[in-house]
Amino acid sequence: MNLTKNQFKEDYVKRLTLTFAQTTTEASLEHKYLALGKLIRDYISESWAETNNYYTKKKCKQIYYFSMEFLLGRLLNSYLLNLNIRDVVKDGLRDLGIDLDTLLELEPDPALGNGGLGRLAACFMDSLASLGFPGHGCGIRFKHGLFNQKIINGYQKELLNNWLKEDFLWEIKKPEKTVTVRFGGVVNLVNTPNGIEPVYSGCEEIDAVPYDIPILGSNMETVNTLRLFSAELPEEEIDLNGLQKGDYQKFIDKKFAVEAISQILYPDDSSFQGKLLRLKQEYFFVSAGLQTILKRYKKLKESIHKFSDFVGIHINDTHPAIAVGELMRLLLDEEGLDWDSAWDITVKTLAYTNHTILAEAMEKWPYDMFKKTVPRILMIIEEIDRRFCEEVSKKYEEDYSKIDSMRIIYNGEVRMANLAIIGSHSINGVAKIHTEILKNRELHDFYLLYPERFNNKTNGITHRRWLKNANPELYKLVIEKSGPECLNDTNKFINFLKYINDDNVLQTLDKIKFKNKEKVVAFVKNKYNIDINPFSIFDVQVKRLHGYKRQLLNVFNIIYLYNQLKQNPELDIVPRTFFFGAKAAPSYYLAKNIIKLINSVANVINNDPDIRNKIKVVFLENYGVSIAELIIPAGDVSEQISTASKEASGTGNMKFMMNGAVTLATLDGANVEIYDEVGDNNIVIFGLTSQEVMDLEKNRTYNFRDILNSNPDLQKILTQLSDGTFSENKEEFKDILNHIYGEGDPYFVLKDFSAYVEAQNKINTLYENRRGWLQMCLVNIAHSGKFSSDNSIRKYAEDIWHIKEVKRGE
């Protein structure tokens, strides 16, 4: 965008005056921020409209990415960078006595996701727009997101995350595009002159109101759309006569029940009501999204039979898998197609990404709940299931065990992963090893049936947010040394390797890292009143808290190191600061107990003078995108220590790598591909392999007591969990102890402990050789370009979606 400083100042003052009737000296900081945001949105809107008009005019095939999460992060700075006007805006505001950085801090962090799934979706949205692909997002406008995490006396407390208490600056409400979503009731199939049609009675109708957010590409001409739906009570449902008679409570109850659908991300599904709400959320946004897409398609005046030539729909994990049933419903009931035609279109249109190996994460719904909530969809799924079983029985000569493993409805449950696989033309994993495990173990029967549908698409991250936005000085260095072609092709980051022996570049890397660490030091001091050493190793594990991610292994090593220092305060180690950031699901008591242990250990270590500040432990409360943008550029060690075979991919590993951290990892998920890129000398690998874990699980030969009996250090650690060392309440960590003793150490924490301690010692030795460490950092940065989401999206576009880059200027 060509914008002079004077033009910006004129535009800004005018926008501030027109919006708030105030001058720059009178306006509050909030009004100054809002005026800037509205002005930037004005700058984007023209290209946004032109992009949509061009897609329609040229009848471009468009992709719609259906995801329960879109963890966008703050957008203002990204918009400024993608418009290439950040410096102009910063200078212009300074002339007006306004600090841009202060305004940037006022933007709320959109609470539209929880972890890697949402961050991946956000990266994909950025890459689609930046590469000029016609691709949009579809999800829910969660009013309260997941929850705000507050640590009180070491315990996680979940507080309401009311990020939408003020209007979200970047969204545009589109009430004229509202669609109706039906739940419950009774559906009867009746014969009519037009054939068999469904007749609904007693169902609940809800308005799905769309809110659009612009996704601006770095090419400054493509602006795609993230459409989020809000659940609202239809106006015709508001009975004014009833209200006038004082029947307020009935109205309030009904309104609350409807709006609950888009109130909070991931309701606690440990209860029936929680499960029901989650199912309603998933059908709500899928139905709304598909109805909207179909309406838009009809404007092309093309045959419904060509739908898949112009539309692709991607199912991001199992949450939107109900799209198979809903698209069939629309094609059968609304468009009047016969079954075979509708099914052919559905399979050609839909594609599915599997994000997990854990069976519990492949969603299953109770049959009766499904029938009560979406009865017409269940009818359709039952017919899909019947036809599929018929197909498989012919192929496998009535091998019922094979049929039962693959069918959709089984044992009183509706299995959503099976539905997604059967109803999609493409099924992909998100790392090479993950895809191979799916093909050879978890989804092996499906792979044998549909080998042509399975493929791998390793996850990626957008360098525009995780390097250019989060670590601008490092970004400038990489571009300066690797060449301007890196701006559009991160594979050219590899040119940075030429400077591996350049001491000036290595020293510059060191200075950039230290500045980033100083920012974290100031943040931690201000927020937690903890003094940390910027010269210490910043060892970071920030991710969702789950048993298989093994934060427990990390904290066990910290306790071990603490015990070593207590025995020998003169122990010669590089000072170490261990950072954790994680939210635990409210009903996941083991995870919450691990958070309490981390904070209890931190409290003891950080206040023990015998340790002489050689180690510190910091738990970063309420971890999210903005904190990630602070801590990732400062990280020295990237903890990627999941139980091998359990982590599908991971993307935090890629972000740390791109920012010059050294990965400490098991050979799991995308760690394997990072290892293949950087080589044995530039990553620290430890622990069981995926095959070894799977063999132990299959053969049930692992006995944690054998490990425990041979390791006095581990014995001491487990004893300390109940002897008052870290809590006066000796029952405090009983969930953790039960996880080990009662469940038999299911994630092999004890099995991998000695190897992990050895790996940590190796980190200490490597870090002491400062030049060698910086060379390792440089190698990681140079090889990180492969893991750009741009590369991932190009592969999706070519292999799955069959779409091409659009250049409006041509």
UniProtKB/TrEMBL annotation:
GO terms for molecular function: glycogen phosphorylase activity; pyridoxal phosphate binding. It catalyses: [(1->4)-alpha-D-glucosyl](n) + phosphate = [(1->4)-alpha-D-glucosyl](n-1) + alpha-D-glucose 1-phosphate. The keyword Glycosyltransferase applies. Its EC number is 2.4.1.1. It is an enzyme of class 2 (transferase). Keywords: Carbohydrate metabolism, Glycosyltransferase, Pyridoxal phosphate, Transferase. It comes from the Bacteria. Phosphorylase is an important allosteric enzyme in carbohydrate metabolism. Enzymes from different sources differ in their regulatory mechanisms and in their natural substrates. However, all known phosphorylases share catalytic and structural properties. Allosteric enzyme that catalyzes the rate-limiting step in glycogen catabolism, the phosphorolytic cleavage of glycogen to produce glucose-1-phosphate, and plays a central role in maintaining cellular and organismal glucose homeostasis. This is Alpha-1,4 glucan phosphorylase.
